């Protein structure tokens, strides 16, 4: 019985966790990172001194300042606080602008669904085995994605003028590329088994996409769609600031006319809006069965 | 057991099949035949090429050489044998046959069931079976389950009835037990109107009772419906009880082809090279570990993977 516990085991050296070459590489990478950040700080005037000076400006912006002009007159410039809480002049229109922002985000997401699905299907290895088309799909999406929504919005505003419509189109185009990529990645990860089983039954690529891939990925696609709706509502706030309608547009107008208190009221409404949309989308995603 | 169904020629004929993945030869001139009404089992150690040979037959892999003939029609390498692609085949017709042309619907097809079953779990049992008919449906009649024609659904119901699951048609496939799902997969193969049914370890994930049921089903498909059935099995006793012939594979080649009364020794020999190879590999590994740095061996391993 004792023989079991006293069997001699050979003593082995413990292999070192770090090797000298690894340590040297780590040091070089760390120094390079520090240098790059130092250079970036110089280029962008980021320094403690700037931060202090900016601080005073921020204080004035938040709480107002008395400006004395050369002619001896002193004018009080209102700050962002206290908030502008007038119902019919500020809050009610603000709520309407928020709704408009949601509608822009919603349409921008929904209108992109057919094209996003098309690009997702031709850009996934599971659904498209014809390599040139696969490359074409990936390429078009990369190009579309490389242009930010704001730039699309500026282009469409130049074409059709200020308003919510150019915002919708800008979001939709950008979202085709982003959602198409997310969807195609979801399709790439699908279990190949049923796809092969249907290929054996003589199904064409389109048929196996419809009967094996899509049923399997539908919850993921829906989850990603809700996630994109959430992000697109945020983006539509930003699009507003360049003139594409919604609450963002009025934040920009108020700040341009130095109505910081009204502007800050709108900013607070945006915060509530984003949180509500975020919670709603998370709740719905859970209902759908994807997190 | 099978004489009444046997026609003059084999339903499936595989001749000199060769397949290599990179440097590694997996099939090395494999030849075998399966007749209508016959159940043939394939036995062999892990990695002996059983799955690869079946996948070559159904067109999921493109063989490097050799011929595959289904009911006298030679299959195009790397193309699935569903009704659509075989409809275009130039079929060498023997003058004695008295048949001039065959409609695409009547071309024999090869179906396959898998160890992991590969149904779409979220779809209903009936929709999964209907999917077997996709090869003969145009896109306008198959773009969605809603578009499946009534006659296809009726045929699928008949296939489900054949495997004893007609009462579960509207349930989600994922809800069924493993054995029932495998029978649904067989029904899908029937809905494909297959005359050759290949089964890759159809019962490896099933309990003994469910295995028995599935094997009985395969047997009866051969006996009563005249299908040619080839099944990869890892259970020699199931192979003996349910098949007419047992093929032994080793190193991508046929090492025996015998009636079910194959000797225990022959079966044991089948798995011996794998054991020996395993021991040899372990010895080699120990030698490598002793002489070179461990990093290089992982490098070569990743290269092999890539
Ligand atoms: N797609 C592939 N790429 C590279 N190698 C492959 C591929 N498919 C199979 N192989 C290799 O071919 C060999 C035979 O595989 P195969 O799956 O046919 O064996 P098998 O007889 O079915 O074994 P098992 O009993 O484990 O299922 C294995 O060594 C495997 O690693
Ligand atoms: Mg296998």
From TrEMBL, chain A:
Segments passing through the bilayer: 21-40, 100-122, 151-173, 208-226, 233-251, 263-284
Alphabetical list of InterPro entries matching this protein: MetI-like (IPR000515), MetI-like_sf (IPR035906), PhnE/PtxC (IPR005769)
Keyword Hydrolase: no
CDD domains: TM_PBP2
Membrane-related topology note: Multi-pass membrane protein
Any one GO cellular component localisation term in the record: plasma membrane
Family the entry assigns: Belongs to the binding-protein-dependent transport system permease family.
Protein name: Phosphonate transport system permease protein
Source organism (scientific name): Nocardioides albus
UniProtKB/TrEMBL annotation, chain B:
Span of domain ABC transporter: 12-276
TM stretches of this protein: none
Sample GO molecular function, one term: ATP binding
Record-linked Gene3D superfamilies: P-loop containing nucleotide triphosphate hydrolases
Comp. bias intervals (Basic and acidic residues): 296-306
UniProt keyword Electron transport present: no
Domain of life: Bacteria
InterPro entries found in the cross-reference section: AAA+_ATPase, ABC_transporter-like_ATP-bd, ABC_transporter-like_CS, MetN_ABC_transporter-like, P-loop_NTPase
Keywords carried by this UniProt record: ATP-binding, Cell membrane, Membrane, Nucleotide-binding, Translocase, Transport
Region (Disordered): 74-100, 286-306
Name of the protein in its database record: Phosphonate transport system ATP-binding protein
Taxonomic lineage from the root: Bacteria, Bacillati, Actinomycetota, Actinomycetes, Propionibacteriales
């Amino acid at each position: 019985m004792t023989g079991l516990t006293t069997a001699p085991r050979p003593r082995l050296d413990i292999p070192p966790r770090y090797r000298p070459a690894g340590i040297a590489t780590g040091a070089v990478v760390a120094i390079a990172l520090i240098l790059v950040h130092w250079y970036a700080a110089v280029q962008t005037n980021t320094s403690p001194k700037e931060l202090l000076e900016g601080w005073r400006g921020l204080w004035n912006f938040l709480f107002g300042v008395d400006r004395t002009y050369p002619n001896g007159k002193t004018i009080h410039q209102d700050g962002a606080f206290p908030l502008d809480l007038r119902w019919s002049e500020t809050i009610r229109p603000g709520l309407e602008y928020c709704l408009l922002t949601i509608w822009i985000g919603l349409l921008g997401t929904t209108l992109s669904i057919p094209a996003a699905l098309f690009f997702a299907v031709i850009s996934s290895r599971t659904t498209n085995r014809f390599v040139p088309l696969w490359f074409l799909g990936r390429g078009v999406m990369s190009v579309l994605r490389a242009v930010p929504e704001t730039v699309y919005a500026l282009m469409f505003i130049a074409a059709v003028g200020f308003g919510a419509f150019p915002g919708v189109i800008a979001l939709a185009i950008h979202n085709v590329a982003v959602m198409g990529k997310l969807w195609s990645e979801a399709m790439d990860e699908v279990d190949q088994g049923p796809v092969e089983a249907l290929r054996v039954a003589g199904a064409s690529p389109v048929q196996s996409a419809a009967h094996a891939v899509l049923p399997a990925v539908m919850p993921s696609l829906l989850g990603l769609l809700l996630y994109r709706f959430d992000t697109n509502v945020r983006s539509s706030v930003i699009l507003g600031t360049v003139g594409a309608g919604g609450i963002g547009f009025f934040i920009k107008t108020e700040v341009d006319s130095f109505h910081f208190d009204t502007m800050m009221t709108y900013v607070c409404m945006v915060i509530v809006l984003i949180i509500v949309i975020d919670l709603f989308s998370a709740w719905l995603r859970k209902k759908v069965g994807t997190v | 057991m099978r004489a009444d169904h046997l026609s003059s020629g084999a339903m499936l004929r595989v001749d000199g099949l060769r397949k290599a993945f990179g440097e590694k030869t997996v099939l090395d001139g494999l030849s075998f035949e399966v007749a209508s009404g016959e159940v043939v089992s394939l036995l062999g150690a892990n990695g002996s090429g059983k799955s690869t040979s079946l996948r070559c037959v159904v067109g999921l892999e493109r063989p490097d050489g050799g011929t595959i003939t289904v009911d006298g029609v030679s299959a195009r390498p790397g193309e699935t044998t569903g009704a659509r692609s075989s409809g275009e085949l130039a079929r060498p017709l023997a003058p004695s046959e008295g048949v001039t042309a065959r409609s695409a619907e009547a071309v024999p097809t090869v179906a396959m069931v898998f160890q992991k079953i590969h149904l779409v779990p979220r779809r209903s049992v009936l929709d999964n079976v209907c999917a077997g008919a996709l090869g003969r449906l145009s896109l306008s009649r198959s773009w969605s389950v809603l578009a499946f024609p009534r006659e296809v659904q009726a045929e699928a119901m008949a296939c489900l009835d054949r495997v004893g699951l007609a009462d579960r048609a509207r349930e989600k496939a994922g809800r069924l037990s493993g054995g029932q799902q495998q029978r649904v997969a067989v029904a899908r193969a029937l809905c494909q109107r297959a005359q050759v049914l290949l089964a890759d370890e159809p019962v490896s994930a099933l309990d003994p009772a469910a295995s028995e049921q599935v094997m009985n089903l395969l047997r009866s498909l051969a006996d009563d419906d005249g299908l040619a059935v080839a099944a990869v099995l890892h259970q020699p006793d199931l192979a003996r009880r349910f098949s007419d012939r047992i093929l032994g594979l080793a190193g991508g080649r046929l090492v025996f082809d015998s009636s079910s009364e194959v000797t225990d020794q022959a079966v044991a020999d089948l798995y011996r090279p794998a054991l020996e190879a395993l021991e040899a590999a372990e010895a080699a590994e120990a030698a490598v570990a002793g002489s070179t740095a461990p990093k290089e061996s992982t490098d070569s391993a990743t290269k092999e993977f890539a």
